[in-house]
Amino acid sequence: MARFINPFSDWGFKKIFGQEINKDLLIKFLNDLLDGEHHITDLVFKDKEQQPEAADMRGIIYDIYCSTDKGEHIIVEMQNRYQPFFTDRSIYYASRDIVNQGVKGTVGDTHIKWDYRLAPVYTVCLLNYDVGAHTPTKFRTDIALMDMEDKTVFSDRLRFIYLMLPLFSKNEEDECENDFERWIYILKNMSTFERMPFQARNAVFKKLSEITDIAALSKDEREKYDESLKVLRDYHATLEGATMLGRREGIEKGLAEGRAEGRAEGRAEGRAEGRAEGRAEGRAEGRAEGIKQSQLDTARMMLEDGEPVSKITRYTGLTKEEIETIR
Q1: Cβ partners under 8 Å of residue 113, min gap 6
Q2: Cα–Cα 20 to 30 A to 13, which of 99, 266, 281, 287?
Q3: pLDDT the model gives residue 54
Q4: Nearest to 179, CA basis, from 210, 216, 214, 208
């Protein structure tokens, strides 16, 4: 039985990173993710739902939406299900956050002035599925607005970081070289651990062990977690079923196509072999007929010269009966 919660269940992910009481875990994770670029000392969780601009438009619900002490907006998304246009969706979400920073309306008769100064928007996506051949085959992909010629960052107002967990290749504790890699190793394998690694190295992992221990969950938390886990398992079961069905249909289709191709190839090979055998037999028969005719012609000339039948049979190989037919 698993000791720690599955961080890729919706409830489990928010338990770790989406609660005010545990925001030090999110701060540590983001600082390790952005090591050398930014250092966050505090953050504030914002309303996860951005309201639509018009009544007939749909709102957006983020997994985690917060702002840092320096004013950056950070969106953290956990995605278990493959979506063919997920990167487009993440760009759309970030763009909506950019647009919503605009000041709208008037106060009394005074038009509100706004100079278009934007807070940077960081989008961090943890993807727990095989991303496919159309995307980069590496664990971490960092995207920014860049000058195409000299490859320098043109604007830091939009930043996307995609973490593709199936492509994280470090499978042993001692392979992890820094705390960010330790985070990913833990998240990827947490539901299989009997003990939480790296607790002696950093207190944040000790706290992570405490809040994700299934035995320490309250009754209400356990019910919510179990329901979230059921949704996750149902998804994987449906995905596996669809994969097996697709594989079986593929095998059956392949067998049918193989049989059809085999019959066609067999017929073609049969025709080719038949033609080849016919040509070979024809050549053999032709040679035999030519030899026979030569024997008969020789026998006829010897008979005209008065040679005895015994001599003719010895020289031509014909039988006496065959020689008698040409007298």
Answers
A1: 103
A2: 99
A3: 47
A4: 208
291-295: long-range contacts (C-beta < 8 A, 24 or more apart)?
A: none
Long-range contacts: 86-89, Cβ < 8 Å, 24+? 86/125, 86/127, 87/135, 87/160, 87/162
- pLDDT tens digits for range 121-131: 999 999 987 65
Q: What are the C-alpha distances in Å from 78 to residues 59, 126, 164?
A: 18, 5, 10
Distance of CA 103 to the CA centre of its chain: 41
Tokens representing 205?
């992992």
d(Cα 99, Cα 157) in Å, to the nearest integer? 12
| Burial group, residue 298, by CB count within 10 angstroms (0-12, 13-18, 19+) | middle
Joined tokens for residue 121: 């928007």
User: Is the separation of the CB atoms in 36 and 142 below 8 Å?
Assistant: no
For residue 284 the two structure tokens come to 């053999």
C-alpha to C-alpha distance for 90 and 158, rounded to whole angstroms: 11
Q: Is 196 helix (H, G, I), strand (E, B) or coil?
A: coil
Question: In sequence order, what are the residues at sequence separation of 6 or more whose Cβ sits closer than 8 angstroms to the Cβ of residue 41?
Answer: 27, 69
At residue 135, what is the residue type?
T
Tokens of 59: 């709102």
Q: Cα–Cα distance between 27 and 33 in angstroms, integer? A: 10
pLDDT in tens, 59-118: 567 789 999 999 999 999 988 877 778 889 899 999 999 998 887 665 555 566 778 889
Q: Among positive and negative, which fits the CA dihedral 146, 147, 152, 153?
A: negative
What's the token pair of residue 213? 């221990």
State the pTM of this model.
0.68
Residues 173-223: tens digit of each pLDDT: 999 999 999 999 999 999 999 999 999 999 999 999 999 999 999 999 999
